[in-house]
Amino acid sequence: MPISIRRTDPAIAAQVTADLHGLPTGRLTTRGDAAHIFTADLADLLAWRAALGGTVTRQRAGGGITLWTLHTHTEPRSDDTRTAVLVHALTLTHEPTDPHLADAVA
Question: I need a labelling partner for 69 at 20 to 30 A (CA). Which of 50, 80, 87, 97 fits?
Answer without folding.
Answer: 80
